[in-house]
Amino acid sequence: MSLALSDYDYPLPEELIASRPLANRQDSRMMVLHRREQKIEHRMFAELDGFLQPGDLLVLNNTRVVNARRFSDDGKVEFLFLERLGPARWKCLVRPGRKMRVGAQAGINGVGVRVEEICPDGERIVSLERDFDPWEGGMVPLPPYLRRQGDPGDLERYQTVYAEVAGAVAAPTAGLHFTSEILDALPHTFITLHVGAGTFQPVKVENISEHRMHRETFFISESAATAINAAKSIIAVGTTTVRVLEAAQREEGKLIAQDGATDIFVHPPAKIRHVDALLTNFHLPRSTLLMLVSAFAGREFLLAAYAEAIRERYRFYSYGDCMLIV
Asked: What is the value of pTM for the model shown?
């Protein structure tokens, strides 16, 4: 067990960062980690069904990524519209921040945007000269490490095939490998967690227990709660699903349908109580996602698996390959 940020680091050759998706979603490789035996297998995602047993249930996050990235009319300021606070009032991330202090103005499609407030975490509260939907006609907010703007291909591929409930600014990337045909053949249910910009927030404290997460909203339907409670084993698709299942309210040990919000930060030495297996992608060094997966798989075993993935030339991050931890 370690709370030291430096113990969640690893070196990654830049050429292993997948900047584009594969031609076919299901063609990703899948590293399988067997926790009990401390054994690693190299398989393909299309073989996932072979690891399911009777009574298993996949739980997936059906949030939909919104086209939240916009640029000022002069091209000098980038906005990421995170949350509508009221008529003509939004919470945003802006870049570069030095250009957008309180009172600063810019235009988007001829509509004035004025900074009203700077939040403690650097987000801006902005007012619009007139109400309009900045998500309409915006661009896909690709992760910063891809170092490129979204293009028409990303409108489809940086979105799961089952994305339904709009509100995320980042995709639940473990689900990007599924096709409709593969999913239809597997027992599954959906929860919703709208992934916020906090998923990219770096951990800046050496003692990771001092890091604070952004709050994200989630929803569990009656049908999902019933299916999850009836399942013999839960296979979470992605870290966002784990966060919901760990944070959600329960009555007499049973999950209940609910609307909620969570800022839960799962990291060692915490134990993940409500998930039996996890499908996830490969995550950035020193990230909260890597720490969550470390709590499930064990930090030393996980980092050994990452080192093997690098030797075996797996593709990393959002458009990369996946890992099944059983």
From this structure: 0.93
The token pair at 279 is: 């499908």
List pLDDT tens digits, range 188-201: 999 999 998 877 78
Nearest alpha-carbon partner for 309 in 28, 60, 70: 28
90: tokens are: 């939004």
**Total Cβ atoms within 10 A of residue 316:** 22
The bridge status of strand 233-237 relative to strand 277-281 is: parallel
Structure tokens at 85: 């606070």
Q: Do domains 5-65+142-325 and 69-128 have the same CATH topology?
A: no
AA identity, residue 157: R
Q: Are 256 and 228 in contact (CB under 8 A)?
A: no
Give the residue carrying structure tokens 């990337």.
173
Q: Each residue of 116-150: pLDDT tens digit?
A: 999 988 899 999 999 999 999 899 999 888 888 88
Cα distance between residue 76 and residue 136, in whole Å: 20
Instruction: Spell out the CATH class of 69-128.
Output: mainly beta
CATH superfamily of 5-65+142-325: QueA-like (3.40.1780.10)
User: Could you tell me the two tokens for 183?
Assistant: 């999913």
Please report how many Cα atoms fall inside a 13 Å half-sphere around the Cα of residue 161, on the Cβ side.
12
- Whether the CB-CB separation of 139 and 70 falls below 8 Å is answered with yes
Helix axes 239-247, 288-297, angle to 10 degrees: 70
Burial profile 4-35: b = 16 or more Cβ within 10 angstroms, e = fewer: ebebbeeebeeebbbbebbeebeebbbbbbee
86 class by beta-carbon count within 10 Å (0-12 exposed, 13-18 middle, 19+ buried): exposed
User: Domains of the chain: which residue ranges?
Assistant: 5-65+142-325, 69-128
Q: What is the spatial distance between Cα 32 and Cα 50, in angstroms, rounded to a whole number?
A: 12
